[in-house]
Amino acid sequence: xxxxxxxxxxxETRARCAGIVLGGQIEAERATMRQITGVGAVALLLVxxxxxxxxxxxxxxxxxxxxxxxxxxxxxxxxxRHGEDCVRKR
Length: 90
Known about the structure:
flat; mainly alpha
């Protein structure tokens, strides 16, 4: 329903203004990820602070923190070589 001046009808106006609004479970997951990221950052800062206080040198703190991912990879390799399934497949 257009009039002669070129105004658009209600259907065309709704179509131009339409968009996607994500809600429900995806919003809850995003909020949870934001909270986990924030808590993880605070935990990392606390660990850095405690280690720096104990070792009194920041280089030693970085060495200790850098060894954690290497230890995890080593544990996964050792478990896989000995026949243990690290991630249970169903």
